[in-house]
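We emphasize that the prediction below concerns an isolated chain of 255 residues; any contacts that depend on oligomerization or on bound cofactors are therefore not represented. The input was used exactly as deposited, without trimming of termini.
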Amino acid sequence: MMAVLMMVAVSASAQSKAEPYFSFRELPNMLKWCPAPPDTVGAAFAYDIMQYMWGKQMRQNKERVEIAIRDATYSLECIMQEFSEPLGLKMSEEETPEIYKLLKDSKATCENISNFPKFYYKRIRPFMRFHEHTATPQFEPDLRRNFSYPSGHTILGWCSALLLAEINPERADTILTRGMMYGESRVIVGAHWQSDVDAGRLAAAAVYSRMHTSKRFLEQMQLAQQEFRIKTGLATPAEIKEFEKAAKKRTKAKK
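Result of the prediction step, given as a token string:
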């Protein structure tokens, strides 16, 4: 079994570049089905303001704001670190290469759905509107150059939660709870309006659904599930044999 996992690790690490499952034009167009951000005079925007104030209050909770600050780092490494405990397995590029590849290519797909609506709506972030600082001032220069709607962090966090819950459905409640917190963190640090986060979760669900129509995604999901079961000692001999066969096939194809 160890030899199989080492072979897969070498094979997966050879593919360093993310390969999105779908391009922007192949994904659902958020402008056609997702609500536009609220205007500044209605009840929806009033709720956004209330949630912004709630987020500032939550910064008084030391433990919660520390989590929110960790969540502010937009990276696959952050996702794997924060979701390893809910998943029940430590994730990394070296230790879980198949799960890593699934998340990496899914992250690139998530980014393909979010970029166009961000630049179409050009929504200003809450901390900029109120001329205040976030709980993560080190990221503010980048945030000022990017737009608010929808929340890219939330898309990544919620899509990752859905993927990991599919890998380990026994811990779906815990994984999805962490996924909800990941989006909530964007309101707490002051980087996003609540409606940005809500739209981000809708976008993540759209990406997740679309990816399930990709044969390459389904094959990678199966490899990730098998890797999880092997790593956690749940795999049957037949599953180990199937995983080994797939690993050898992939290694041969790379030569």
